[in-house]
Write a structure and sequence with these properties.
The structure is a single chain. The protein is α+β, with helices and mostly antiparallel strands. Helix content is 16%, strand content 38%. The strands form two sheets. An eleven-stranded mixed β-sheet has the order 1-5-4-3-2-6-7-8-9-12-13. Strands 10-11 form a two-stranded antiparallel ribbon. A hairpin with a 2-residue loop joins strand 4 and strand 5 (67-71). The relative contact order is 0.15.
């Protein structure tokens, strides 16, 4: 299995554009197309641009006259608003705000890819497993296009940041998330069992967080 080799991706300095998205199956973008969004800078300035989030490179992308470029200078960005969804920079990446109250839950949109596969014995093909080299699809800017080249498939997934008692914890599994509520372990287990909470379903995690805020 080949590991993803992150290649250096050219980022453009921007003081006027950014965005967000809606998950699309087998897409490395979270929106099906670029959507008009508003970028609030820390200076208080607001910029409007056609935006989308590339979950493969984990970058906010803006469309400039048909050319897709990654945002830079994230330290100058406060918040990005797109289609009633909210993003902000955290750990030099954009995260989506799923829930904001006593506890905060942020989504980290990612995806893995499989390549078209190589010829194998008996007329079959041999695919790499869930990850492959980004460099193999980065030439010609294809990595920034809405559709991957023929044969490449993207599998979106989500990790999370939980902010509890002022502390941020990255969670890549339901076990890691619920571990942060060890003082309420019985309540957590009962809720998960009764509501069939799934880590892959952000809405069910939001309901769990809301329940824990009230109990």
């Amino acid at each position: 299995m080949r590991k993803i080799l992150l290649v250096a991706l050219v980022s453009a300095l921007v003081t006027n554009c950014f965005a967000q998205g809606r998950t699309v199956e087998l897409s490395h973008y979270i929106f099906p197309d670029f959507i008009k969004g508003t970028v609030l800078m820390k200076s208080g300035k607001k910029n409007v641009a056609m935006l989308n989030y590339n979950s493969l490179t984990e970058e906010m992308i803006f469309d400039s006259n048909g050319k897709q470029l990654a945002m830079a200078k994230l330290e100058d960005v406060d918040t990005v608003y797109v289609d009633d969804r909210v993003f902000f920079p955290l750990e030099n990446k954009f995260v989506e705000v799923l829930h904001h109250n006593k506890y905060d839950l942020y989504a980290i949109h990612k995806c893995s890819i499989t390549d078209p596969g190589k010829p194998a014995a008996y007329g079959g093909t041999s695919q790499t497993s869930s990850t492959t080299s980004i460099s193999s699809i980065s030439s010609g800017g294809q990595i920034y296009k809405l559709q991957l080249p023929d044969g490449f498939k993207a599998k979106p997934y989500t990790d999370y940041w939980l902010k509890k008692d002022g502390k941020l914890t990255m969670c890549v599994s339901l076990k890691q998330l619920t571990k942060q509520f060890s003082d309420k372990s019985d309540l957590v287990k009962k809720f998960i069992k009764e509501n069939k909470t799934k880590f892959e379903n952000p809405e069910s995690l939001i309901e769990l967080i809301k329940f824990l805020e009230q109990n």
